[in-house]
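ok new one. same drill as before - C-alpha cells go in, u give me an amino acid for every spot. 295 of them this time. try not to just spam alanines like last time pls lmao
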C-alpha cells in the first residue's frame, strides 16, 4: 500500500496536474495545486479527492483515509485552525505521532491559545488516550471562564466520556466496586444519560446480574430507541438468563433497526441453539460469518 503522499501523487495525480503541481492546459484544463487558495479552505481538498469535481474522478474507492490525508497534507496552509484539523484527522486514522506533531505545531503558533483550541487539544489527547496530559489540560480548562454554550457542552461531554472510560478500564480489570465509584457521581448528575446507563449495564453484566442489565438496557431503549448497543446487551443478558421469549422479542425489534448486523445474527443463532434448533442455529451462525466477512 502506498502511504507517502508523493508516491500517490505521482501515481494518480501528476498525469493531469503535472509533476510540479502547476497544472496544464491542453485537451482539458487541469488546475494548479501549488499555490491554489481553494486548498486551504476547510475540508475542500478532502472533499474533492473523495467525491471528484468537474472532470476529476472520485477516488473514494481507490484511496483509504490515510492515503487521502497523505495527498492533502502538503497543500494545507499552516494556520493553527487547519493544523489542528489535520491533527484530528490523523488521529482518526491511527497515526498518533503525526497527529501530535500537527497539534503541537498549531499550539506553537498561538502565544495564548483560546478555549476552542484548548478544547481541541484536550479532545485529541482523549482520543489518543494520553490520559496524564489530558488531565492537566482539563484542569487548566476548568479554571477558565468565557465558554460559549457549545464549548460548555463539549467540555461536559469530554469529562463524562473520560470518567466512563476510566470506569470501563477498572471494570475490565475485575475491580467492579471501584468501577461503580467512578460511575456513582455521573449517575447522580446524569441519571438518564444513555452513556452512563450503558456503562452501569456493562458493570452488572460482568457481575452476572443479568436481570439488572435487561432493566437498564430497556430503560436506555425507552430514552433512545435507536441505540443498537442497548438492544444487543439486552438480548445477550436475556439469553444468559435463558429468557428465550424475551430474547426473541428483543431480536425482532433489533433486526428492524439493524437488518444486516452480523452480531444480531450470531445472537439469533445462540437463541436457536438454546431452543435445540441446531440446524437453524448453524444457518444463522453461517450468515453472521458471511456478513462479518463482507465488512
Amino acid at each position: 500500500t502506498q502511504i507517502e503522499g508523493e508516491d500517490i501523487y505521482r501515481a494518480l495525480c501528476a498525469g493531469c496536474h503535472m509533476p510540479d503541481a502547476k497544472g496544464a492546459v491542453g485537451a482539458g484544463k487541469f488546475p494548479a495545486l501549488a499555490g491554489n487558495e481553494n486548498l486551504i479552505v476547510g475540508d475542500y481538498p478532502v472533499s474533492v479527492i473523495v467525491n471528484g469535481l468537474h472532470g476529476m474522478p472520485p477516488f473514494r474507492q481507490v484511496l483509504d483515509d490515510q492515503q487521502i490525508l497523505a495527498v492533502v497534507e502538503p497543500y494545507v496552509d499552516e494556520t493553527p485552525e487547519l493544523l489542528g484539523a489535520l491533527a484530528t484527522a490523523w488521529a482518526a486514522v491511527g497515526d498518533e505521532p503525526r497527529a501530535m506533531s500537527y497539534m503541537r505545531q498549531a499550539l506553537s503558533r498561538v502565544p495564548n491559545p483560546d478555549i476552542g483550541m484548548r478544547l481541541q487539544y484536550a479532545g485529541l489527547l482523549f482520543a489518543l488516550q494520553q490520559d496524564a496530559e489530558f488531565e492537566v489540560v482539563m484542569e487548566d480548562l476548568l479554571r477558565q471562564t468565557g465558554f460559549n454554550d457549545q464549548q460548555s457542552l463539549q467540555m461536559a461531554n469530554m469529562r463524562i466520556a473520560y470518567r466512563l472510560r476510566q470506569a470501563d478500564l477498572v471494570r475490565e480489570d475485575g475491580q467492579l466496586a471501584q468501577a461503580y465509584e467512578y460511575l456513582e457521581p455521573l449517575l447522580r448528575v446524569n441519571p438518564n444519560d444513555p452513556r452512563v446507563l450503558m456503562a452501569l449495564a456493562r458493570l452488572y453484566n460482568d457481575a452476572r446480574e443479568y436481570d439488572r442489565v435487561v432493566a437498564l438496557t430497556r430503560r436506555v431503549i425507552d430514552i433512545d430507541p435507536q441505540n443498537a448497543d442497548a438492544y444487543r446487551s439486552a438480548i445477550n443478558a436475556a439469553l444468559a438468563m435463558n429468557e428465550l421469549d424475551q430474547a426473541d422479542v428483543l431480536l425482532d425489534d433489533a433486526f428492524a433497526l439493524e437488518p444486516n448486523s452480523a452480531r444480531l445474527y450470531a445472537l439469533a443463532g445462540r437463541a436457536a441453539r438454546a431452543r435445540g434448533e441446531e440446524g437453524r442455529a448453524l444457518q444463522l451462525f453461517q450468515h453472521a460469518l458471511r456478513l462479518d466477512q463482507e465488512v
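The longest strand covers residues 24-25. and btw The beta strands are 24-25, 29-30.
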